[in-house]
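cron nightly-structures :: item 1 of 1
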Amino acid sequence: MGRKAKLSKEEKIQLCKDREKGMKLSELAIKYDVNSTTVKQCINLYKKHGCSVFEEKVRNSTYTKEFKQKILCEYLSGKSKNEIIIEYNINKTVLNNCIKLYNSNKELTDYDPKGEFYTMKSKKYTKQEKYNITKECIENNKNYKEICKKYYVSYPTIYRWVNNFEKSLEDKLKDNNTSVEAKHEILLKLKDIEIERLKAELEILKKNEEIMDELEKMGR
């Protein structure tokens, strides 16, 4: 006898209630005649979104280019497919198609509001060059588009560099094996980056003030 094709809304909710009462995943799979993956997905969706997540959709969902870019970047930065699917309550096909389009380069342009900066093939950079570009991106309020244009780096690539850089610093600070001196250097590095970021913000504010002053003079 094959597995049950699809659970109803009521069955999914009851499955989650049974789990809350202490039933094991294997017991739930047998009771509702579904595989363990379906059981886990129902439970995770319920925990994240509540009962409403099981409501029947009257029509197929539509997703903006920005949304597809967002989930793709999260995947490229290390988030698992399952985490993204649960987080945004999307069908795995949506994410898989985004990944497929990204890997094919040309087709992905239809999904990107930033055009060529998203699909371009990045140049090869040394470890030090990657660090310098990443640092500059963070200091400039993570203006990915400008960095992509300046260094000819694709959007997902610089997004991943920044994400990995920030995560590595956090991990080193939390690691008990990291020496006090090393942690001190990391904190100084973060401080320098923050100072440069604030300088960039201040420069933008100054330029805005100058523009406003000019507009006021013109209006007199």
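cron nightly-structures :: done
The radius of gyration is 24 Å.
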